[in-house]
């Protein structure tokens, strides 16, 4: 009986241990992110009214039969099993934005760290379609994250001065990733956005 109780307590303790947050490639150190932030062009966002998600083609085939969404689900999930079409049939996903864990892929969205419309109003409106497709499917930089679907929907196309992750402990990583993507793609930031990012980086 004692061994059963101890085993049960151990199982509870293990299940209570938070899963590590996924780490898409290319997240810079805080010091590098601060340097990148200082180098970004500060400029008012320009919404010309012509943004459409269709201008950023998603999702493209990445690996075998896996498209970008399916690739990120496999990359950021735990014990993910997929069928021949690369659709996730089982696994678990930890959402670093809010700390929730999901066991159904349908509860998980793939978030663009810098939202597509935010990119549009900060320089991507001048890009070619090929460049926008690269941005929308970028798995080489910290642009794509597997997160809770309704948290992603709450974020929508908002910048860090308008929306922050529910978990304040993730502010540091969020800001580092956001700045890195904006720097990689030479996108502009607003003064309010820069102030919010600076404050978030100060939590690192």
Automatic annotation (TrEMBL):
Q: Which residues form the GmrSD restriction endonucleases C-terminal domain?
A: 98-198
Signal peptide (residue range): 1-16
This protein's UniProt keywords: Signal
Q: Which PANTHER family match?
A: AMP-DEPENDENT SYNTHETASE_LIGASE DOMAIN-CONTAINING PROTEIN-RELATED, SECRETED PROTEIN
Name of the molecule in the record: GmrSD restriction endonucleases C-terminal domain-containing protein
Q: What is the lineage of its organism?
A: Eukaryota, Fungi, Dikarya, Ascomycota, Pezizomycotina
């Amino acid at each position: 009986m004692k061994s059963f109780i101890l085993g049960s307590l151990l199982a509870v303790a293990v299940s209570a241990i938070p899963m590590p947050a996924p780490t898409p490639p290319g997240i810079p150190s805080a010091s590098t992110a601060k340097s990148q932030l200082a180098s970004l062009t500060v400029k008012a966002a320009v919404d010309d009214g012509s943004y459409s998600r269709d201008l950023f083609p998603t999702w493209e085939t990445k690996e075998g039969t896996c498209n970008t969404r399916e690739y990120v689900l496999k990359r950021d999930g735990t014990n993910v099993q997929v069928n021949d079409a690369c659709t996730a049939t089982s696994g678990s996903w930890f959402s670093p934005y809010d700390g929730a864990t999901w066991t159904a892929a349908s509860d998980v969205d793939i978030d663009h760290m810098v939202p597509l419309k935010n990119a549009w109003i900060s320089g991507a409106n001048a890009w070619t379609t090929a460049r926008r497709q690269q941005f929308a499917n970028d798995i080489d930089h910290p642009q794509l994250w597997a997160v809770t679907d309704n948290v992603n929907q709450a974020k929508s196309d908002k910048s860090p001065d308008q929306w922050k992750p529910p978990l304040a402990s993730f502010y540091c990583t969020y800001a580092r990733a956001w700045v890195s993507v904006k720097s990689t793609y030479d996108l502009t930031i607003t003064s309010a956005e820069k102030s919010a990012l600076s404050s978030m980086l100060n939590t690192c």
